[in-house]
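Morning F.,

Quick status update on the modeling queue. The single chain you submitted on Monday has been processed. Sequence for confirmation:
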Amino acid sequence: MDKEKNKTQVDTSFVIDLMRNFSTIFTLSILAISFIGFLLYCYTPNIQDISALFASGGASLLFIVILQIAGFSLIVAFFSILFISQRFIEKMRFWLRILLLFISALITFSVFAIILKWFPVDDPLAWLGFLISTFLCFCISLGLTFIKFKLERKKYNELLARFKNSQKNP
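Structure tokens below.
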């Protein structure tokens, strides 16, 4: 009975983690693509001829692009849970987890970019821009993750210190 309850809790936790990661990745992807699209449109007005991701075509095309980004976000969220949490792979160095997550996200984005024609795949300059922007976004998210870890460590150290003090002085 306890095993079934425990398995249900793990499955529910996985779904909750997946949705949490998905919503974070999706939101940040939309913001990043919107910001990059704005910059590209300011400096390259014919961007809609270059990339299907920034093409103007009304609400139906916008909906399709948002669904594409949602699909990408869901896959990367799965990889995030697979490599970052210890749910599936228990013993692996943190940097190797980060590297595997980066490679899986890069491959996923590349497949989406090629299949959905997000940018011209035969243009080496477009691939260079893709690699640079992917690397920069990944570095920013890694930096934010480290800041989160540092703040959590500080919080838990303070809680541990309070707990130790309360045990000494009952």
